[in-house]
Each structure stands twice: as C-alpha cells, then as structure tokens.
Design brief:
Elements: E1 4-9, E2 12-17, E3 21-23, E4 40-48, H1 51-61, H2 65-68, H3 70-73, H4 85-99, E5 106-116, E6 126-138, E7 145-155, E8 161-172
Parallel strand pairs: 3-4
Antiparallel strand pairs: 1-2, 4-6, 5-8, 6-7, 7-8
C-alpha cells in the first residue's frame, strides 16, 4: 500500500509519497551522518521567482532570448519568459544549504547526478524545496565521515515538479568511534 501525506508549507501544498519520516522544520537543524537515514525527508522552504531577478541572472549567465526578453519570449518555444535552469538550481541550492546540510558536518559534495528540469519556471512561481535521503553509507577510506545521496525536488505552487537532482555529499559522523 502506498502512503500519501499532504503537507502544507508556506501556502504550498506538496504531495509526499512513500516517506518514512517527514519534517516541516524550516529552522536550520544541526545534522550529522547518523541523522541522514534513507527515507528521511525534510521540507527546505520556499522562494518566489520574479521577472527582474530572472532577467538579471540570465543577462549575466544564460542570455538566451526566452530568459532575457519578455516581449520576444511570448513568441518563443515556452510562450513567455522562463527562468534559466541554472538560476533555479542556484536558488534551490541556497535552500538546501540553509535547511538540509549543516555547517557543523558538511564536507562538500562529490557532485550532482540526474539534474532535470521537467517544466519551465515562470515569473511569480513560488517554488518549494524538499530533500529525501536515498542512500547513506560510511566511507570505506575515511572513518570520520559518510556519503549521503539525496534526491532534491522542486515543486511549484500548483504542486508540479519543476526540477530534480541527486546530490552526493560527504558528511561528518557525530561519533566516529
């Protein structure tokens, strides 16, 4: 049987499926490797994209017409202005740093796998971040840390999935003994 939890956070309804543990704690929590149990899910806050920020980011880093020209974008492939995926990724990363990884234990990342943008993000969209631990294992070569694989998801105000990625982080153990 599949469990479904409807959770409201910052006015956004998110459907969370097959979760073992869900928290809507938005304050930064000190987490160590032992806290990242497979199935653990945490809401990591929300943010709203606005047209001025979308254009400013794109002008500097991703100057494609559908990111920088609201008038011209109306006749483009998305029928209007959309945010650069890299802008969306950067905004999500900020939420993950504030609400998922802990400065007390984070040792950086090995990388990101499976980055996807299945739907465009538009000006005015409010995006909700959720992290779920997929895998956590002790490091074979460094006994003071573990490796945590996290699926990060971004949903818009309508509950539509707009971005996913799988992050691989190095996390200190609370008690390496």
């Amino acid at each position: 049987m599949r469990s479904v939890t409807i959770q409201r956070h910052c006015g956004v309804a998110a459907v969370l499926r097959d979760t073992k543990c869900v928290t809507d704690q938005t304050e930064r929590a000190a987490r160590y490797f032992e806290d990242y149990v497979p199935g653990f899910t945490a809401d990591c806050g929300s943010f709203t994209m606005n047209e001025a920020d979308i254009i400013a980011f794109a002008e500097k880093y991703d100057p494609q017409p559908f990111h920088v020209d609201p008038v011209g974008a109306k006749d483009g492939p998305f029928g209007g202005l959309i945010a650069s995926g890299w802008h969306t990724t950067s905004m999500m990363m900020r939420q993950l740093v504030e609400h998922w990884v802990s400065p007390e234990s984070s040792l950086g990342a090995a990388g990101v796998d499976e980055l996807r943008w299945p739907r465009p993000v538009r000006p005015g969209d409010t995006l909700h971040v959720r992290g779920t631990v997929l895998e956590a294992r002790r490091s074979a070569s460094k006994p003071d840390r573990g490796i945590v694989r996290t699926r990060a998801e971004l949903h818009n105000q309508d509950g539509d999935l707009v971005m996913t990625l799988t992050a691989i982080n190095f996390i200190l153990l609370r008690d390496p003994s």
